[in-house]
Design goal:
Largest sheet: 9 strands, parallel
Family: Belongs to the metallo-dependent hydrolases superfamily. ATZ/TRZ family.
GO biological process, one term: guanine catabolic process
Mean pLDDT: 98
Pfam families: Amidohydro_1
Cofactor: Zn(2+)
Catalytic activity: guanine + H2O + H(+) = xanthine + NH4(+)
Number of domains: 2
CATH class of the largest domain: Alpha Beta
Bound molecules: guanine, zinc ion
Distance between the termini: 33 Å
Length: 433
């Protein structure tokens, strides 16, 4: 069969390293770039002027003037069942879960409801330029079947799992250590490594899992060494107090997971807002990742994530929207909130670091940087086209700006879904504004 080659032309930016350590060597930027895709994978990326003469004449070129192409955004923590209860008023974490989240998740026992929400959710991801996400389902295995079926239909690289939760939640949402083990195992065998789908063992957080259930989660990771672990960690001070009561023998919050063998290079912990030096060190030495969720941390009043501290300890970090604790599906908006969180910490989140975190940094946090995250030859061609003229204000603000860092900063400060002109999956147009 002959190769299918397509090309997209616009300004082009991608990262090969973390700008915090590699500076200007961390990225490649072509003001007039060309991205060449062969059979759904990156073939080449570079200056249009040099590359156009090399293209066969039969290849069609999609040209986006006044736009920037970057790798697709990676959301390292989000809850698809919370799509319909985003923007719920007035509470911090534990009361918010009880008042809004658990009742909303109850409805996912019905597969047709799960399908409906999965569809809205995936449309919303693509509208926002998010091409890969690490996703919470509910306790119902049906919620994961619905999500993976829809993601598979769209050829998406997605990671998801069924919530494991056997206490401290309404009776109607509880499983048991044994049923959660069996259901997760069945789902792993059904979905993990099918096309672009991957499974995450998903104990909600240590409050809602008994020691017996956390041990079952550890057993699943032993039996299926290439699945993920996805949970919450040290988000809110009342949550941390309750952890102390429930696990009086644990050294700290992370130790609860550590003693059940849940840390490792495919383990992603959402939040990590209140972590001591020892916990940061332990995350780093086990290759575990944190998901930085600034929109959620501000909305739920949880606290201010310390990105500089994580850089110092060498902890892997990706960006998470944490919808519906977070208030936007947009990673641009989430980065804007991330900048403000850093301001309140007396730190600066540079625009280059921001785009790194939303692309290659997220891929590294998900241990997927051999497949996605930048435009290295052979990677899966998921990318986004961002519009420098998306709104009258963005257009006006950028009219005389040539500096790429300044353009990126304006996009994260003023941009949202409106800035996404198109989203491509495996080289195919999947969304157009
Ligand atoms: N901790 C336990 N469950 C949740 C949840 O659904 N959202 C957030 N933000 N934190 C949690
Ligand atoms: Zn969450």
């Amino acid at each position: 069969m002959s190769d299918t080659i397509t090309a997209v032309r616009a300004a082009l930016l991608h990262f090969t390293a973390d700008p915090a350590s590699a500076g200007d060597q961390a990225y490649q930027y072509y003001p007039d770039g060309l991205l060449i895709i062969k059979n759904g994978y990156i073939d080449n990326a570079g200056p249009a002027e040099q590359m156009l003469p090399l293209l066969p004449e039969s290849v069609s070129i999609n040209h986006y003037p006044n736009c920037l192409i970057t790798p697709g955004f990676i959301d390292t923590h989000i809850h698809y069942p919370q799509t319909g209860m985003i923007a719920s008023y007035g509470e911090q974490l534990l009361d918010w879960l009880e008042k809004y989240t658990f009742p909303a998740e109850k409805a996912f026992a019905d597969p047709s409801h799960a399908e409906e929400v999965a569809e809205v959710f995936l449309n919303e991801l693509l509208r926002n330029g998010t091409t890969t996400a690490l996703v919470f389902g509910t306790v119902h295995p049906e919620s994961v079947d619905a999500f993976f079926s829809q993601a598979q239909r769209r050829c998406l690289r997605m990671i998801a799992g069924k919530v494991m939760m056997d206490r401290q939640a309404p009776e109607y949402l509880l499983d048991t250590p044994e049923s959660s083990y069996q259901q997760s195992k069945t789902l792993i065998e059904r979905w993990h490594q099918q096309d672009r789908l991957l499974y995450a063992v998903t104990p909600r957080f240590a409050i809602t899992s008994s020691k017996e259930q956390l041990a079952k989660a550890g057993q699943l990771l032993q039996e299926f060494p290439d699945v993920y672990l996805h949970t919450h960690l040290s988000e809110n001070t009342d949550e941390i107090e309750l952890i102390k009561q429930l696990f009086p023998d644990a050294k700290d919050y992370l130790d609860v997971y550590d003693t059940h063998q849940l840390l490792g290079s495919r383990s992603v912990f959402a939040h990590g807002v209140h972590l001591c030096d020892h916990q940061c060190q332990r995350l780093a030495e086990t290759g575990s990742a944190l998901s930085f969720c600034p929109s959620s941390n501000l909305f739920l009043g949880s606290g201010l994530f310390d990105l500089a501290k994580m850089e110092k300890y060498g902890v892997k970090v990706g960006m998470g929207t944490d919808v519906g604790g977070g208030t936007s599906f947009s990673l641009l908006q989430t980065l804007g909130d991330g900048y403000k969180v850093n301001q309140l910490k007396g730190q600066q989140l540079s625009p280059l670091k921001s785009f790194y975190l939303a692309t290659l940094g997220g891929a590294k946090a998900l241990n997927l940087d051999s497949k996605i995250g930048n435009f290295t030859k052979g990677k899966e061609a998921d990318f986004v086209v961002l519009d420098y003229q998306a709104t009258p204000l963005i257009k006006y603000r950028l009219q005389h700006t040539t500096d790429i860092a300044e353009k990126l900063f304006v996009l994260t400060t003023l941009g949202d879904d409106r800035a996404v002109a198109a989203t491509y999956i495996m080289g195919q147009l999947a969304y157009q504004r």
